[in-house]
Design brief:
By secondary structure, the chain is α/β, with parallel strands linked by helices. Helix content is 38%, strand content 8%. Helix 4 links the parallel strand 3 (112-117) and strand 4.
Length: 258
């Protein structure tokens, strides 16, 4: 029986892919790490897979030939190694994985892809610059948490960027049984000692067991499932717009420019 979600590669069968070959691949990249005391280790995986699924569904229903790859559950965790089982893949490891994925897409005739990143510790721009001349697949990176910042600012007041009000609201809307709001706290973070770091024009990796009390950053206690659903809808609609536009775009000698 054909899958009801043909945009999900993991649920598609060979005949479907042969009859309706995708033109755009979405590569979800996440992480497995602690998220304060109230959210599960799979928070980034849950969020990124759900956002990718909904965005691809919207794009599919609008006629885009898109496929959602299985979410990679591991990411860069070099600064969270004080916590148990924060599974680390070094940036160079992730870049090698992307090299192989891009080659597979090329072998399958797919020329367009979007890295859907759901973990702040991942950054693939160096890979994009380093590899662009060596691959035929055009690849964009999208951090879904950057897609609708205006919407987020209107919904969430807790600040921070990890297990905060936004992330907690999302997981409440997706997997409420995994959220323990009784353990949610203010999740205050340490102030940088150096003025240049406080002012934002100098930076260094945040070592999370020094920067936070319990791996969370930002007060999540005002989170609600309703806020999470509203935010997710805005994010997914905008990502779907991108996928539809990318699918329709012609790759010529000036692409992606006019």
């Amino acid at each position: 029986m054909p899958t009801e979600k043909p945009w999900r590669l993991a649920e598609a069968a060979l005949p479907q892919l042969q009859e309706s070959p995708p033109r755009v691949a979405v590569i979800p990249m996440a992480a497995t790490e602690p998220h304060g005391l109230h959210l599960p280790y799979a928070t980034d995986v849950i969020e990124t897979d759900a956002i990718g699924d909904r965005a691809c569904e919207i794009a599919h229903r609008r006629g885009a030939a898109v496929t959602l790859l299985p979410t990679l559950p591991f990411g860069v965790q070099t600064t969270q190694q004080a916590y148990p089982l924060a599974i680390n893949l070094n940036p160079s490891t992730l870049f090698a994985v992307l090299d192989d994925i891009a080659q597979t897409l090329d072998n399958s005739g797919i020329r367009k892809a979007v890295i859907l990143n759901g973990h702040g510790g991942n950054d693939f721009y160096t890979w994009l610059k380093e590899s662009h001349a060596e691959r035929r697949v055009f690849v964009l990176q999208v951090n879904w948490f950057d897609v609708a910042r205006g919407v987020a600012e209107g919904l969430f007041a807790g600040g921070g960027d990890h297990a905060n009000e936004m992330e907690t609201s999302l997981v409440l809307s997706l997997r409420p049984e995994l959220v323990d709001m009784d353990r949610a706290s203010d999740q205050a973070t340490a102030r940088p000692r150096l003025a240049a770091m406080r002012e934002g024009w100098a930076r260094a990796p945040r070592v999370w067991d020094r920067y936070t009390k319990d791996s969370g950053a930002g007060d999540p206690r005002a989170a609600t499932a309703e806020k999470g659903e509203q935010y997710a809808e805005a994010v997914c609609q905008r990502i779907a717009d991108l996928l539809v536009e990318l699918d329709a775009a012609e790759i010529d000698d000036r692409f992606p420019f006019e």
